[in-house]
Each structure stands twice: as structure tokens, then as C-alpha cells.
Amino acid sequence: KAGVTQTPRYLIKTRGQQVTLSCSPISGHRSVSWYQQTPGQGLQFLFEYFSETQRNKGNFPGRFSGRQFSNSRSEMNVSTLELGDSALYLCASSLTGGVRGTTTLNTFGSGTRLTVV
Amino acid sequence: DQQVKQNSPSLSVQEGRISILNCDYTNSMFDYFLWYKKYPAEGPTFLISISSIKDKNEDGRFTVFLNKSAKHLSLHIVPSQPGDSAVYFCAASTWNQGGKLIFGQGTELSVKP
């Protein structure tokens, strides 16, 4: 059973550019969540999608956006990149979303390492 | 506003001994807590969870304790093994926040042979 796939694994962008990251969940999983991991802030919740609808959103500026497609694959976009956006971006999928019970447990991908220069 | 805190960035333990990782939270609305383990270059993997209606949950070598009055939880690993060396994150959620997890900053555990 394939795990959560995030592409690309590594990315270098220049300040002011925009970037799109992709996440393919485990087959059958309908919920996808995104997290940003930085050394100073740990893992911070970005957003959660279920059946193409955003169910939850963290405290990030509007430059951070996401979407989910009908096949449950998800993308997140960061516009007008800043140096502080350099981070590991993690995607997690689960059957039904939420965090309680066996159908909701998140499986994380290995992440996309974004470096903004 | 760090609602979930892991005050020890690192912990070193001898193989075979007990590892105790601590986590404090400030939001009394949290009612479900999880521990994740993360190796370098990999995503976090789920270890164990506990609901706020319980004060203890065990799974093999891993036990999580919850002290609601102190807003404190801990993960005990007994006995510790070198393969347990990783970064451990505690996370918390509220019933009405769906899949949103609030993570601590992590504790790097090193188990020495």
C-alpha cells in the first residue's frame, strides 16, 4: 500500500516568487491536512481538506492557500515568498479526517523542503 | 502563543532504562492528545493517543499519562532501545476542530547503547 507522496522533495525559490506543492494521499483517504515545520515554531497547522472542501484553517496569512481535487490529491500554494517561509511542509492524510479513532489517524508524508533565498 | 509546550529540547537515556518525555498545555478545551515520533527526512508517525476521559493509556513499551488538573502529559518508554532515538512530538486537539492538531516543539530523544 503506497504511503502519502509529496512532490517535490526539495525546492529552492527566490523571494517574491510563488510555489505550488503537491500531496497524493493514501488510496481511499479523503482527508488531507497540511503542516509547516520550522526549527523555531515546530509543526504548525495550515489547513485541512475533506472531499474538496476546506474544513479548517490555521493562523497563516492569505498568501498560503490550498485546494483538493476530486481524486483527493491536494496542492498548497504560497505566493510572494518570504525568507521566513523556508520550512519543511508536511502533508497528512486520513480516511475521514479528524484525529480520533482508527479511521482518522493521520499518515504523514516525508515532506517538501522549501528554501527561499 | 504556544498552547502546547515541550520544555526539554533533548533527552539522553541509557539503553534499557526508562525514557520520560513531558508535555504541558494551556488550553483547557483540548480533549484529545497524541504522541508522534519523527526520524530525520521522514514524516511523523503516530505512536499513541489518549482521550481526556482517561488518565493512562498503554501500548506495549509506550505509556501515556494525562494529568488534567496540571495540564500535563507524559510519554514513558520502557525499556528504551537505540531504535527509539528520534524527535518526539506531543499534539493536542479539541472536539470541534476536526483534524487540526496543535503540536509541541518536539523533544529529541537519544538512547545510548
Question: Rough shape of chain A?
Answer: globular
Estimated structural class of chain B? mainly beta
Largest sheet of chain B: 6 strands, mixed
Q: Based on Cα principal axes, name the global outline of chain B.
A: globular
What is the ordering of alpha helices and beta strands of chain A? Answer: EEEEEEEEEEE
Secondary-structure element sequence of chain B? EEEEEEEEEEE
Largest interface: which pair? A-B, 29 and 24 residues
Cα radius of gyration of chain A in angstroms: 13 Å
Rounded to the nearest angstrom, the distance between the terminal CA atoms of chain A is 37 Å
Poorly predicted runs of 5 or more residues of chain B: none
What composes the largest sheet of chain A? 7 strands, mixed
Total helical elements of chain A: 0
Say what oligomer this is.
heterodimer
Structure description:
- The complex is a heterodimer of chains A (117) and B (113).
- With 117 residues, chain A is an all-beta fold.
- Helices cover 0% and strands 51% of the residues of chain A.
- Chain A has strands spanning 5-7, 10-13, 19-24, 31-38, 42-50, 53-57, 64-68, 74-78, 87-94, 107-108, 112-116.
- In chain A, strands 2, 4, 5, 6, 9, 10 and 11 form a 7-stranded mixed beta sheet that branches. In chain A, strands 1-3-8-7 form a 4-stranded antiparallel beta sheet, with no helix packed on it.
- Chain A is globular and about 35 Å long.
- In chain B, a hairpin with an 8-residue loop joins strand 9 (86-93) and strand 10.
- Chain B has strands spanning 4-5, 10-14, 19-25, 32-38, 45-51, 56-59, 62-67, 72-77, 86-93, 102-103, 107-112.
- In chain B, strands 2, 4, 5, 9, 10 and 11 form a 6-stranded mixed beta sheet that branches. In chain B, strands 1-3-8-7-6 form a 5-stranded antiparallel beta sheet, with no helix packed on it.
- Chain B has 113 residues and is mainly β.
